[in-house]
Amino acid sequence: MNSNKNTVSSLLPAGSKSRGNYQIPSNSAVLATLSVLATRYSTDLMIDIAGKEPKIIKGKNNEFYIPLTEKEFLTTVPALSEKGFVLISLFCVQNFEEDPDFTLFYIFRLDSSTDVFAFMRYVRRETTSIATVFPSACWYEREIRDGFGIEFTDAFDKRRLFLHEAYPEDFHPLLKSFKNGKIKAIKNPKEAYPFKKVEGEGVYQIPVGPVHAGIIEPGHFRFNVIGEPIFNLEIRLFYKHRGIEKLAEGKDPSACIPIAEAISGDETVANTVAFCTAVEKISGIEIPERANYLRAILLELERIYSHMGDLSGMITDIGFPRMTTPFLILRENIFRQNEFLTDSRFMKGAIDLGGVKKEISGEALSKLSLYLKTFVSQFESATEDVHTSSSLIDRFSTTGILKKKLIAPLNITGPIARAAGTTYDVRFDHPYGIYKDIPPERTIKIAGDVLSRFEVKATEVLNSASLINKLIASIPEGAIIAETTEFAISNIPDGYALSMVEAARGQNLHWVYIRNGLINRYKIRTASFCNWQAIEHAVPGNIVPDFPLINKSFNLSYAGTDL
Amino acid sequence: MQEPTSEVKWMVNPLTYVFRPKVTEKFEFSDSELETLGSELKTKVNRVFGHSLAIRELDSGSDNSTEIEISNLASPHYDIERFGIYFVASPRHADVLLVTGAVTLNMAEAVLKTYEAMPSPKFVVAVGDDACDGGIYKDSYAVLGGVDKILPVDIKIPGNPPSPKEILRGIFSLVKKVSV
To answer: So what's the pLDDT on residue A373?
Structure first.
């Protein structure tokens, strides 16, 4: 270790927690070190615990891979949890590189460091669970069990996740031995899904879904209530499981763009940018500056219309249609702007490998900029109107509180986490594209209730609008797609990369593994996958009629979770 | 880090608004194509469906953009209740079932039950490319295919997703088809 006595805490932004006596090398290397802090910190931790330096493989997109023996893995993971690392994803790959069996990738991040790292654990048919140390691992492990048939022998929850009763018990779609195609579904399954049972005097259950009363996606909610107050909520999803990850396997990267767009319709741009970034990193494509700007403009437009839907939805769900109208009008106007710019109201087909598909002229951009001025003033007057209603504030305030202490263990991200006192935003913490140079403003609230979520989303709409204006003002001329794209994609080397994007709902993580020019494994983890578990914790203690409101204030994607 | 602000920063004393004059703002928007389509539709709905057409929407595995476009039909730019069309919460109240998305194995049972809960005569409209023929999921293990694999489909509205106006046109062709 270097002799310089700078501690990590002195390098972190004010307000971050101290991380003990960990030391980093001298000032000249400070910047370089800060960008790979999480990985360094974890490897030093391993030296302390295991007594030797692990092998570190540098990834293509500021991520690091650390292959571990089973013993190293088991001793290090509990320490990571104590030191505040966040498990942001866990996925399985069969036959990774030359391995005959399965490789589990545990992806971790640390507050205030821009890198992420993966612990690679080699397993066969059985392994052990880490869900008691990292609670967010629970769903991932169930997902891996369904997909690959790997048993987590000591897991506390071994129920199936995305494969419901219609699927045969020994069916594991992500195994390489399964060739995608129709299977024989089980008709009239005998066993029902075992929901958590709560019994006692006056306790009853309310089952809701998968088909709901409104025009929304399917999912099942099982409430346990005593009178009006809910004391337990269990959410069962994956009704919309369409087999997206398997569908991508064996396709060439450009054929995968429609699949990335279909992950979640209202996160089209975010997911496509994340997918394209991963492929671009693998093939070494540098996208032109103008394309970076255009991507960011579309990403922010997507954030605006998505948040607008949430804002109007929250007001609708307390039965206040008069107040929702201006939000609906403004949102439709944004959809029309999207169509004007990209020929698609959801900006489908706008992003392409190497940049963006269609040029957006300077004239079109100045029209957008001009419209946003009107938009902002009308939006401000609509939100001001909202705050004049005491009954609205009464319903929003102190409803559905998300506790800050849950955020790291469950990896909750996006505006809902920023409304509960955390700052995490992929655009700052792992900057990509143009956000490296032009960061957006941060918005933070601390109460974690519906009102805070409303205010964070409302402020983010304005921030996005001002960011778009800033981008339009400084967008350079030039190519919109890298010249080398076609050549690079047709000669793409074997490799893998991880990319993250801040979608409207939070951190979307994509991991792409390419072999022989084709997608071998495409792992997608949208923010909703993690954030759904936040709802289970935010709802208990509230009354049944507040559930739709709380659910809307989170407004998570079912499609993006179910895949 | 930004200093956290107080909770109800924008809360305004509501009393100041009690005495303010109440005005309704005019929504300056007109789309003659939509109006023509709407009035033709209304005439047909009046005749065929006794002045009101009740629609139940069902998502059987879409990417959620189709849901957004369908719910946009009720927003001020379209406001299709003017034409006698409205969305109902229960299949028991519905004349028409709008189904979006390739039917997933996990949803198949719920789709059938929803259809069975509707009173006859009943009609099914498949909305979006995936609902029409399975779309990009055609060969996936996880879906049955288009909605017609499981329900009798009367009209298909293609699109990824179809725009609100296209959906309205599709509903119009259903009403025309039924009235023959």
So the answer is: 93
Q: CB within 8 A of A450, min separation 6: which ones?
A: A314, A395, A396, A397, A399, A400, A549, A550, A553
What stretches in chain A show pLDDT beneath 70? 1-36
C-alpha–C-alpha distance, residues A12 and A34, integer Å: 9
Who's near A298: CB < 8 A, 6+ residues apart? A269, A341, A342, A347, A350, A351, A356
The model's pTM: 0.90
Instruction: Look at B87 and A215 and tell me if their CB atoms are within 8 Å.
Output: yes
CB pairs under 8 A between A and B: 172
In a domain, A549, yes or no: yes
Q: Is residue A287 part of a domain?
A: yes
Q: Is A358 exposed, middle or buried (0-12, 13-18, 19+ CB in 10 A)?
A: middle
Q: Is residue B125 part of a domain?
A: yes
Q: How far is A389 from chain B (nearest CA, A)?
A: 7
Tell me whether B128 touches chain A (CB under 8 Å). Answer: no
- Rounded Cα distance between A294 and A291, Å, is 5
Contact (CB, 8 A) for B102 and B130: yes
The answer to whether residues A144 and A162 touch, using CB atoms and an 8 Å cutoff, is no
Query: Can you point out the beta strands (E) in B45-154?
Result: 53-59, 85-87, 96-100, 103-104, 123-127, 143-145
Grouping H, G, I as helix, E, B as strand and the rest as coil, residue A136 is coil
Contact A390 B14 (CB under 8 A): yes
CATH number at residue B106: 3.40.50.12280
Q: How many domains does chain B have?
A: 1
**pLDDT tens per residue, range B51-89:** 899 999 999 999 899 999 999 999 889 999 999 999 999
